[in-house]
């Protein structure tokens, strides 16, 4: 009798706590220390526990197993919700928290309705095994294919413009040459000015027009009189997106 009472009140508590957690997570004036416990509960426990009750009439094993299943389902739900919201450019706390709360509410409703459902006629396992196997044979490949397509598709976070890297690589021309490599991981075409400064001479400038995925290498010859600290900078060109990278290379002075 105690177990029946618990199963009838648990969906109500899950729905109530999920709603409160979503409201607290959305309220920006609250400090992060106040929102963090509610966000953790919403991401690590509430959706999974409601889904566990909706999917299984009886808890899967002992309390420890139920907890693990609930945490796993919560993490999967949180990740899937974030990926879907990011795909539509709507990933933010004002959408992510209500979506997880909505999943919890729907699962809690199913969980409560399932508890009040009258007992059904017992059927043999063989009667339901074939449809379950056929459904799994169709759904599992579809889900795997969809997961691979989503995983291979680059989906930047909202307002993420990408980035550009500047690095020093091994010299390929001569020991007196400094070789740098620029890689563009931007979402659109950009323009940047590559500037090399060394002792005893004017700066060397070059305008780079970079498309997404471009890799550009440039060699800078360092005369014996200019050896020492060489600075290479990547600065934005007029009208382009901000790019700011700098590397310092110390070229050793040759012995007489």
- Helicity range: 40-55%
The H/E string reads: HHHHHHEEEEEEE
Question: What is the number of strand segments?
Answer: 7
Radius of gyration: 29 Å
3D architecture notes:
By secondary structure, the chain is α+β, with helices and mostly antiparallel strands. The protein has helices at residues 2-26, 32-44, 46-55, 63-87, 93-116, 125-152; strands at residues 162-169, 177-186, 190-197, 204-210, 215-221, 228-236, 245-251. The protein has six helices and seven strands. The longest helix is centred in the middle third of the chain and has 28 residues, at 125-152.
Lay out the secondary structure:
Layout: H1 2-26, H2 32-44, H3 46-55, H4 63-87, H5 93-116, H6 125-152, E1 162-169, E2 177-186, E3 190-197, E4 204-210, E5 215-221, E6 228-236, E7 245-251
Antiparallel strand pairs: 1-2, 2-5, 3-4, 3-6, 6-7
Helix pairs in contact: 1-2, 1-3, 1-5, 3-4, 3-5, 4-5
Task: Describe the structure in brief.
The chain is an alpha+beta fold and 256 residues long.
Keyword list:
256 residues, elongated, alpha+beta, 6 helices, single chain, three-stranded antiparallel beta sheet, 7 strands
């Amino acid at each position: 009798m105690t177990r029946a009472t618990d199963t009838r009140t648990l969906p109500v508590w899950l729905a109530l706590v999920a709603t409160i957690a979503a409201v607290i997570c959305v309220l920006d004036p609250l400090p992060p220390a106040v929102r963090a416990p509610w966000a953790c509960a919403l991401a690590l426990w509430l959706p999974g526990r409601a889904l566990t009750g909706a999917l299984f009439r009886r808890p899967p094993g002992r309390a420890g197993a139920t907890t693990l299943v609930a945490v796993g389902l919560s993490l999967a739900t949180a990740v899937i919700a974030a990926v879907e919201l990011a795909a539509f450019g709507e990933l933010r706390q004002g959408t992510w928290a209500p979506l997880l709360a909505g999943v919890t509410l729907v699962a809690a409703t199913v969980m409560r309705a399932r508890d009040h459902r009258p007992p059904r006629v017992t059927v043999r396992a063989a009667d339901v095994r074939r449809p379950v196997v056929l459904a799994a044979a169709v759904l599992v490949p579809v889900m795997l294919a969809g997961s691979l397509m989503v995983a291979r598709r680059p989906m930047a976070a909202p307002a993420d413009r990408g980035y550009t890297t500047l690095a020093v690589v091994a010299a390929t021309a001569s020991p007196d040459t400094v070789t740098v490599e620029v890689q563009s991981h931007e979402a659109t075409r950009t323009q940047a000015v590559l500037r090399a400064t060394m002792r005893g001479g004017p700066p060397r400038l070059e305008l780079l027009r970079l498309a997404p995925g471009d890799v550009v290498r440039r060699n800078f010859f360092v005369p014996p009189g200019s050896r020492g600290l060489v600075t290479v900078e990547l600065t934005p060109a007029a009208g382009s997106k901000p790019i700011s990278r700098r590397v310092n290379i110390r070229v050793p002075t040759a012995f007489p």
